[in-house]
Design a protein that fits this description.
Layout (H helix, E strand, L loop, with lengths): L6 E8 L2 E10 L4 H13 L4 E12 L1 H15 L4 E5 L3 H9 L12 H6 L42
Helix pairs in contact: 1-2
Length: 156
């Protein structure tokens, strides 16, 4: 039985924060999709990103590397990346890799959004097909599949 290796992403706004909800598997075959989305948001001027990982079933080294790269890029601009809603298994992985403070991990989305009270000026939004909508409500996530030719390794 083959596991579902898709990554679903939806982007929304909650006050001054941009929330990127991810679900499925984050791995070498699809981490670039998330990396491109987060990079575009940073390039648009977003300095406080929250990744809502309640639906994330698994994450390999490539996924953690993408999140770290965005975190360090934001840190250079006085920004912050917070990750919220990790499963107990993924939270243990973060603790083993000593990433809990790096990502400002919060168990609940509401706590991550309240972690910093500053309000950001509205950022210009470049709408991506299927990802961002003019009314800033989360779009219906599209199913993303890695290329058929390269099966993704699993690190469980």
């Amino acid at each position: 039985m083959e596991s579902d290796t898709t990554l679903d992403m939806a982007v929304g706004r909650d006050g001054g924060h941009i929330v990127v909800a991810i679900s499925g598997e984050l791995h070498m075959g699809n981490a670039g999709l998330l990396g491109r989305l987060l990079t575009e948001l940073v390039e648009q001027g977003c300095r406080e990103l929250v990744v809502d990982a309640r639906g994330l079933a698994g994450c390999d080294g490539a996924g953690w590397q993408v999140l770290l790269a965005i975190r360090w890029r934001l840190a250079g601009d006085a920004g912050m990346l917070r990750v919220t809603g990790l499963s107990p298994r993924l939270l243990r992985v973060c603790r083993m890799m000593e990433l809990t403070e790096v990502f400002g991990l919060e168990p609940a989305l509401e706590r991550a959004l309240a972690a910093r009270s500053s309000h950001l000026p509205p950022m210009p939004v470049r709408h991506l097909p299927g990802e961002l909508r003019p009314d800033d409500t989360p779009a219906v996530p599209r199913r993303r599949r890695p290329p058929e030719s390269a099966p993704a390794p699993r690190f469980d």
